């Protein structure tokens, strides 16, 4: 049994199905990446797993505890790092950790020892007495992570923890998450940065339109596009998609063409061989190309091929 077992999970808001019969599991010690374009249902799924939204149907178990029947007990096994900073700005980092530690039932010497350990983990041992309002955005997010791991949760859920921070803080957070996972902590990680998920997660689920469209390891997901690279061609102006398809469909399957505003992506095993002909066909039809790039097979290519959308759509 996994630390998290989700079965046939659905959420309906009036006439809108935000999540549709989703099932997945996360094993103990696993780092699971959850990806999807905006509106795919990721946030709603995370909110149900966290116990913030009751599901319309389906079940959620955290280490064998039913989230619907025993929400308080199940929530006690979770650590949540939300998108927004959840800290008291006029309190110090240590005071914030003390407050959240008590909320989790920690107290006395055990709480103080754990606060010291966590301040070391997040790299803020020398700033523990400073007020959070004096911290940079990245430092605040590190305290947010510290608050979520004080009680050594069975499952740590991180919802875009590096949004809007500087590269140095982002790197520190990624390394912290990596070390936590290597030490045995089970993690669900959502991000708009594809390279973060590739770096941190051994298993990935991709959502779109409220459903899981695939799950697997990075190597398993890459097999869905094989060794096909992606030719990315940008144009000076937006164009009519049907026109591009008519030009290219004779030699390239339509499923390997992704079209969006002033950008065209073509998947092919031998991009260098078709590139010249591709450029000639497009420019010959009157389209002005501003840039061309060949991208080797990666997680982003898999994502685009499966959803037809970029992560931020």
From TrEMBL:
Domain of life of the native organism: Bacteria
Pfam families: ABC_tran (PF00005)
PROSITE patterns: ABC_TRANSPORTER_1, ABC_TRANSPORTER_2
Occurrences of domain ABC transporter (ranges): 4-234
Keyword line: ATP-binding, Nucleotide-binding
GO terms, molecular function: ATP binding; ATP hydrolysis activity
InterPro entries: AAA+_ATPase (IPR003593), ABC_transporter-like_ATP-bd (IPR003439), ABC_transporter-like_CS (IPR017871), P-loop_NTPase (IPR027417)
SMART domains: AAA (SM00382)
PANTHER family: LINEARMYCIN RESISTANCE ATP-BINDING PROTEIN LNRL (PTHR43582)
Protein name: ABC transporter ATP-binding protein
Lineage, opening ranks: Bacteria, Bacillati, Bacillota, Bacilli, Bacillales
